[in-house]
Write a structure and sequence with these properties.
By secondary structure, the protein is mainly α. It has a single domain, classed as Na+/H+ antiporter like fold. 73% of the residues lie in helices and 0% in strands. The protein is built from 17 helices and no strands. The longest helix has 27 residues. The radius of gyration is 20 Å and the shape is globular.
Length: 400
């Protein structure tokens, strides 16, 4: 019965989603991304303030929303980036961050501040590319040279921690995690073969082409089916499905080919129009405000470590290819984290290895990065950005 959706709570969540969009529309100069308003609305609805409902009331829909966050992030990522300088530098920056995180968290574990060594260390290396995409696309920051570096650093910071979590922290053992990764690879091959079959099949190709729009929406329905099937892979914890959603997004962009912009617009409408806001409002409802209030210094500690460990290497790695202002923007984007932190906190709590106050502080620090860093990235871009093009020159225009 845990998966039953409360219609009353869902109505309140939908109301917060609408209000957040209206506020952003009425106050275009508001230096706060919409996701922050969704999180704040969730906190307001949650058990620690108005007690309208709990995150558990909409868990199924929130899981689908998290899947959409990663699917859309993967869909936006161009794998060819990793053959370019942007991809190579993003990989170098992430591995430097990983080394720093292991060292810093090792010290914290030795002093008794941290119990869950690996989840916290990986948490310091994550980047919330899916969370940042609406802001970056809306402000035209994904176009041009800077956009390539932002997408690469965000993609690495989202994919590699999830890969590590699936292998080392998966709830069903390392062998099952490796099998899951292999299944995702097989899925990519199968989708590639299906693409070839659809092209050569004649009749099926005609049906798919004719049913992409209007009432059939074949490609959209197939994508939603794929996403929900991936989420259903685990019944207790959806981490492997999250990894699958990200990689499926990468594969889908190649699979649909020339129709990629049209499908992206539809996925934006379904994802950002309903499921993604449900996930973020639900995350706000689940935030343990009482634990954060009891130990605020832990939140500030994790916040500072995210900026130093994840953002700091970007200032050095991109020194010869980006000017100082854009390096700071890249560092701030790199250090913005949230969805994976929620997953890591849940892993730590379920396994009993993470202290509740650390889980709350880690997620709270992620919320703080989402609150502050995207706004600073936009503010830094405003001064010289009058001459910058608003549309993303390097990719399809988004609905942001």
């Amino acid at each position: 019965m845990d998966d039953v959706v409360s219609i009353d709570t869902l109505a309140a969540v939908a109301a917060v989603s609408l209000v957040a969009a209206v506020v952003v529309g009425l106050l275009p100069r508001l230096p706060v991304p919409q996701v922050v308003l969704l999180l704040a609305g969730g906190m307001l609805l949650g058990p620690h303030v108005l007690d309208v409902g709990a995150a558990q009331d909409v868990r199924v829909l929130a899981d689908v929303g998290l899947g959409f966050v990663f699917l859309l992030a993967g869909y936006e990522l161009d794998p060819r980036l990793f053959r370019e300088d942007a991809g190579r530098r993003a990989l170098l920056a992430w591995f430097v961050s990983l080394g720093l995180a292991l060292g810093v968290v090792g010290v914290l574990a030795a002093t008794g501040v941290v119990r869950a060594f690996l989840p916290v260390a990986l948490g310091l290396t994550t980047t919330a590319l899916g969370t940042l995409l609406p802001v970056l696309r809306e402000k035209g920051l994904l176009g041009g040279r800077l956009g390539r570096y932002l997408l690469a650093t965000g993609g690495v910071g989202e994919l590699f921690p999830v890969l590590a979590i699936a292998v080392f922290l998966g709830s069903q053992g390392r062998l099952a995690a490796l099998a899951s990764l292999a299944a995702v690879a097989v899925l990519a091959v199968v989708l590639g073969l299906l693409r070839r079959g659809v092209r050569e099949g004649g009749r099926l190709a005609a049906v798919v082409a004719a049913g992409q729009d209007d009432t059939a929406q074949i490609t959209l329905r197939a994508t939603v089916l794929l996403l929900i099937a991936l989420i259903a892979v685990t019944d207790q914890f959806h981490l492997d499905a999250v990894l699958g959603a990200f990689l499926a997004g990468v594969v889908l962009r190649r699979w649909v080919g020339a129709a990629a912009p049209q499908l992206e617009a539809k996925l934006d409408a379904v994802g950002y129009g309903f499921f993604v806001p449900v996930f973020f409002v639900s995350s706000g409802m689940a935030l343990d405000l009482a634990s954060i209030a009891e130990a605020p210094l832990r939140l500030l500690l994790f916040f500072a470590l995210m900026l130093a460990v994840r953002g700091g290497p970007a200032l050095l790695v991109y020194r010869r290819v980006l000017p100082a202002r854009q390096r700071v923007q890249t560092a701030l984007v790199s250090a913005t984290a949230l969805p994976v932190l929620v997953a890591l906190a849940e892993i730590g709590l379920r396994s009993g290895t993470m202290l509740p106050e650390n889980a709350a502080a880690l997620v709270g620090a992620g919320v703080l990065t989402v609150l502050l860093f995207p706004a600073l990235v936009v503010a830094l871009d405003r001064r010289p950005a009058a001459a910058a093009p608003v549309p993303a020159a390097g990719g399809p225009a988004g609905t942001g």
